[in-house]
Automatic annotation (TrEMBL):
UniProt keyword list: Cell membrane, Membrane, Sugar transport, Transmembrane, Transmembrane helix, Transport
Major subcellular site: membrane
Protein name, as recorded: Permease IIC component
Lipid bilayer topology: Multi-pass membrane protein
Species this protein is from: Enterococcus silesiacus
Cellular compartment(s): Cell membrane
GO BP term, pick one: carbohydrate derivative transport
GO MF entries: protein-N(PI)-phosphohistidine-sugar phosphotransferase activity
Record bears the keyword Glycoprotein: no
Record field: transmembrane: 29-52, 58-82, 94-114, 134-153, 173-194, 243-260, 331-357, 377-398
Protein role: The phosphoenolpyruvate-dependent sugar phosphotransferase system (PTS), a major carbohydrate active -transport system, catalyzes the phosphorylation of incoming sugar substrates concomitant with their translocation across the cell membrane.
Length: 419
């Protein structure tokens, strides 16, 4: 490929990816899901503590409560996060958007009668619709309702209040007309679906959309492809993790929360491929590369980059090396760059299916130090798997980095001779 064609292809790819990652809906999903991170991590910590043998019964119950509240109500947190992210993107009223999104979601969620004995049946929402099973409906409702609400306000489909009315009061009245229209439409949708064989929107979406997507998300091949794609984008100078973040949220998140719910209910987690698994076992690639640079490079340039990158790499930060080596558009290290994450996920997957690594059901912060994250996610087995990944990545990068290092030494020698 000529330099002109290569430049044209790279520019075209950059334009496409920028359009995708800056799309309002994609950004809202990625940023909104990020807002749920604190509660899921706290819930995961209670899960980890609850699994410690020999704890008093009261502590186990307290931990189970923490896990349940974080996982069984995850759809509510997702709605709040995505609705606020979308409202921020559209410069709309955040609080009104969240309230309207939640109200719309509850209108679409069936209320079930439960027989609790001699008393009258209790009417309640089933937790299953508020947990992992309701995530897709929650995401759709938060995106659509917030977007429509913002559009109606923008088009002035509202009460026109006199300028003398204080802004806070005027905003409240402005929300009445669009809120009423959206709310009535949601009631009509809910009533209409009640007459179908599905009975409600949740079961319709779950059958026709969520289940096929979960099958795709549950596939190791789709996980490996996403890992490869993320690093391939980095090769072209595009922040791959940010681009695929929303895709991972759609394909792999429900399986993660289904695992949390299962553990909270005292059952066994079964979804091997999930977002928690991918976050924890993409592999200690940054640390392996930094070690090569520091201890195996003869070039002063690469050794210096390694020293600067060593501490950030412990926390999984690769930018100093990506831009310092550089790794972007560097054909010499194309293979280890694009394959290392997929290989690491493959190692963790094999370790799981042979029964060595437990199915991951807890969420650990992405930037926890390497090896500690593996231990937090899966105990000593997680630590061992990350050590294996570290050695494999180190061996994968080594021959390619030796070639780069030789080039660096030759350049430095030539520079010295020219001085």
């Amino acid at each position: 490929m000529s330099e002109t064609k290569k430049s044209s292809f790279t520019n075209g790819l950059n334009v496409f990816v920028n359009k995708f990652s800056n799309n309002t809906f994609v950004k809202s999903i990625a940023n909104g899901m990020m807002m749920t991170l604190p509660i899921t991590i706290v819930g995961s910590l209670t899960t980890i503590i609850g699994m410690i043998p020999g704890l008093p019964e009261i502590v186990v119950k307290a931990c189970s409560l923490g896990t349940s509240i974080s996982s069984n109500l995850i759809t509510i947190y997702v709605i709040i996060g995505i609705s606020s992210a979308m409202a921020r993107e559209k410069k709309g009223d955040i609080i009104s958007s969240i309230i309207l999104s939640l109200a719309s979601f509850f209108v679409l969620t069936p209320i079930t009668a439960f027989d609790i004995g001699k008393e009258k049946p209790a009417m309640a929402f089933e937790l299953t619709y508020l947990g992992s099973k309701g995530i897709f409906v929650g995401m759709i409702v938060a995106l659509v309702v917030t977007w429509v609400f913002a559009k109606m306000v923008e088009k002035r489909i509202t009460f026109r209040m006199p300028e003398s009315v204080p802004t806070a009061i005027a905003k409240t009245f402005e929300a009445i007309v669009p809120a009423a229209i959206i709310f009535i439409i949601m009631i009509m949708i809910s009533t209409g679906f009640a007459e179908t064989k599905f009975g409600n929107v949740h079961d319709f979406i779950y059958t026709n959309l969520q289940t096929p997507l979960e099958s795709l998300g549950g596939s190791i091949w789709s996980a490996l492809f996403i890992m490869f794609l993320s690093e391939l984008l980095w090769f072209f100078g595009i922040h791959g993790s940010m681009v695929v973040g929303s895709v991972i949220a759609v394909l792999f998140t429900t399986q993660a929360y289904a695992n949390m719910e299962a553990v909270a209910a005292g059952e066994v987690a079964t979804n091997i491929i999930n977002s928690f698994f991918l976050d924890a076992f993409k592999g200690p690639r940054a640390l392996a590369l930094a070690v090569i640079l520091v201890w195996m490079s003869r070039s002063e340039k690469f050794k210096s980059i390694g020293k600067i990158s060593l501490v950030p790499s412990i926390f999984g930060i690769t930018e100093p090396m990506k831009f310092g080596i550089p790794m972007i558009m560097n054909a010499v290290i194309f293979i280890p760059l694009t394959l290392s994450a997929a290989i690491c996920v493959g190692i963790a997957y094999i370790a799981t299916i042979i029964g060595f690594l437990p199915v991951i059901s807890v969420n650990v912060p992405k930037n926890l130090p390497t090896f500690l994250s593996g231990f937090m996610a899966a105990g000593w087995q997680g630590l061992v798997v990350q050590l294996i990944q570290f050695v494999v990545v180190l061996l994968l990068y080594l021959p390619f980095m030796k070639k780069l290092d030789s080039q660096g030494v030759a350049e430095e020698k030539a520079n010295l001779e020219n001085q």
